[in-house]
Amino acid sequence: MEFRKTEEKDVLSVVKMYNQAISYLKNQGINQWQSGYPNESTLRKDMADGDSYVIESNAKVIASACISFKEDLNYRYIEGGSWQNNHEYAVIHRIVVDESVKGKGVAKVLMDACEQLCIERAVDTIRIDTHEENKSMQSMIAKQGFIYCGIIYLQDGAPRNAYDKVLVLSTINKGGDSHVEDFR
Fold first, then answer.
1. Which residues does 163 contact at the CB level (< 8 Å), separation at least 6?
2. Among 11, 22, 65, 164, which residue is least crowded by beta carbons within 10 Å?
């Protein structure tokens, strides 16, 4: 598996995964991503900003995420809790995994690669949010070691459960024995 920036040739695959996720959430009765977002325009903006990444396996894109190192205005105010720190942070958005490989650890591989990217940039904090009813995402976030911090509000006023994870930057692997090392 290879973790890399999203390229033009990946657009249809990533949009297909967005649509799979939109259908999954709708079938679960979760009112997240039900208004035409995310879409190809969202992906193209992420790509233009240099924030879109994919996991490719056997010449097929099987997962995608947006990883931004810019301040997220939605994260300035948090209700019912607080962030673990006020350090510079990365934000992970729009995590999708192709339905053909769901449940096979691909989301963990994607999240581990995102963490490695943060370590390489010396950013020790990652933030993420999800809908309060999106239990599968909440489970994945918890398994990755994220801590629930409170509620943030999107620009449209929709509430989201917010989490962060503080990385130990001294764990940068220079010996090559980390499985994330393979994504460089």
1. 127, 128, 129, 130, 141, 146, 147, 148, 149
2. 11
